[in-house]
Design goal:
- The protein is an all-alpha fold.
- It has helices at 2-14, 23-31, 50-61, 67-96, 100-112, 114-119, 126-145, 149-165, 168-189, 195-210, 219-226, 233-238, 259-263, 268-273, 291-300, 316-328, 330-352, 364-385, 400-417, 419-446.
- The protein is built from 20 helices and no strands.
- The longest helix has 30 residues, at 67-96.
- The radius of gyration is 22 Å and the shape is globular.
């Protein structure tokens, strides 16, 4: 975990760019004496503003006028969010497994995985929504195990902050209400008497959430103009014509040419040969049109996106590190696939029966529900935008406790069969991840 924190800090210090320009929103807020920018003032102004206001407050408190120092402060703000998120992952693992090896291997993956490190070291609002969504899910998971007032307050506060950070926070809260409803029905079906606490939590949190968040900018504007907070002028502008199942339809920067190709292919050899996205350069590698390939590549290699522009580089060492990372990434991917099967089985048993073991798998379905919800969000934005730039795993990260559960269950099953293999795989993948991000930090430092 210390290595993961150090890599986040190191990358935040040397990095001067982000996937999208959110800094302009924070500086606009500060320079306009804390007015809220209209969604059309800048491209990223359509987002909720919790992160941007937090960054602007830091700029003001520290009297930061130099852009370089503003970027550093905004980056480090997200590093702090990333460290708190890691502590939540750690706490979850401590309560979810009795195996020391499974605990360490899973924590190492989430601490060192390049996709998590890179998004938590740059100035965007993603680290905030990931942190608060994870906090909301963790508090709900614990509340359903042992209801207390403090967990209920924390759940409600995190739900409001998640939606105030990014629109995906709405998805998380809607999913939470659905989870509570299913839990109540399940407990009533089994003649349980502890469903009243969950019903009260749903009622109070809904009153607080819907009494505040819909009135925040930009959601009030979107509800007024479009009838829903889940859209904006920018997202509507980028929506493409629907893709067909087997027939190619034109689109900008493919992306999804046809559905069967996008979701029915995994181009491993192509990723090994070309471990990066060509962006707007032609010809582009075929793995750019494969949904599963894009998720896998972006999770495995920090430079796979070749974005932000400052991160671009196709030198021999970078390509070699990328190829190794793509191959080694098969190890955690295999654990995740195995864990998905096991977690789904646990979830089915949890809803059909009542398990009360010391490590209780009966609430696996709660975390899987959030994973499924945010995975559906990723599918939707991929099909709406149809450009390769929408195939980003960060859309799933607000449901990262579900990802953590899946990975943990896979690691536990593999460790029961061969502990030495699991230990070796964890060490190898962790070492490759450290080399990958360290090389990125070094190259950015040299620039």
């Amino acid at each position: 975990m210390l290595a993961g924190c150090a890599l986040r800090v190191g990358l935040a210090v040397v990095n001067q760019q982000a996937n999208d320009d959110h800094l302009i929103v924070s500086t606009w807020i500060r320079d306009s004496q804390w007015l809220i920018p209209d969604s059309r003032v800048c491209w990223e102004c359509y987002h909720a503003k919790a992160y941007h206001y937090a960054a602007a407050l830091i700029f003001e408190f520290l009297s930061l006028d130099d852009t370089r120092y503003q970027i550093l402060a905004a980056n480090l703000l997200n590093v702090a969010a990333g460290v708190l998120w890691l502590l939540l992952i750690k706490r979850f693992l401590e309560r979810s497994t009795t195996s020391r090896l499974s605990y360490l291997a899973t924590l190492a993956f989430f601490a060192l995985c390049p996709a998590f490190i890179t998004i938590q070291s740059q100035a965007t609002n993603d680290a905030f929504v990931i942190l608060f969504s994870t906090g909301m899910i963790y508090c709900l998971w614990r509340f359903l195990q042992q209801p207390t007032l403090s967990k209920g307050i924390c759940f409600t506060l995190c739900a409001v902050l998640a939606a105030s950070s990014k629109v995906s926070g709405w998805i998380g809260f809607f999913t939470a209400l659905l989870v509570i409803f299913v839990y109540i029905v399940d407990r009533m079906r089994h003649r349980g008497t502890d469903w009243h606490h969950a019903a009260l939590l749903a009622l109070i949190s809904a009153l607080v959430f819907f009494g505040t968040v819909p009135f925040e900018p930009p959601y009030a504007e979107y509800i007024r103009d479009f009838g829903t907070p889940l859209t904006s002028p920018q997202t509507r502008e980028e929506r493409q014509a629907p893709a067909k199942l087997f027939e190619e339809t034109p689109t900008l920067r493919p992306g999804v040419r046809w559905i069967a190709e996008a979701f029915g292919t995994f181009r491993l050899l192509g990723m090994i040969e070309t471990p990066y996205i060509s962006n707007d350069q032609h010809p582009f590698p075929e793995h750019r049109t494969s949904f599963w390939s894009q998720l896998y590549g972006r999770m495995s290699f920090s430079r796979f996106d070749q974005w932000p522009s400052q991160w671009q580089g196709l030198d021999g060492t970078t390509i070699a590190v990328g190829r190794i990372a793509i191959v080694v990434g098969l190890l955690p991917a295999a654990a995740a696939l195995l864990g998905l099967v096991i977690a789904c089985s646990n979830a089915a048993h949890g809803l059909l029966g009542r398990s009360r073991a010391s490590v209780d798998p009966s609430l696996d379905w709660v975390l899987l529900a959030f994973f499924a919800a945010f995975f559906c969000v990723l599918i939707k934005v991929t099909l709406d935008g149809r450009q390769f730039s929408w195939m980003k795993p960060i859309y799933m990260f607000p449901g990262s406790l579900g990802i953590c559960l899946i990975y943990l269950r896979g690691i536990e099953a593999a460790a029961r069969r061969n502990e030495r293999l699991v230990l070796s795989a964890a060490v190898v993948s962790g070492l490759v991840y450290v080399i990958d991000v360290s090389w990125l930090v070094y190259q950015l430092f040299r620039r």
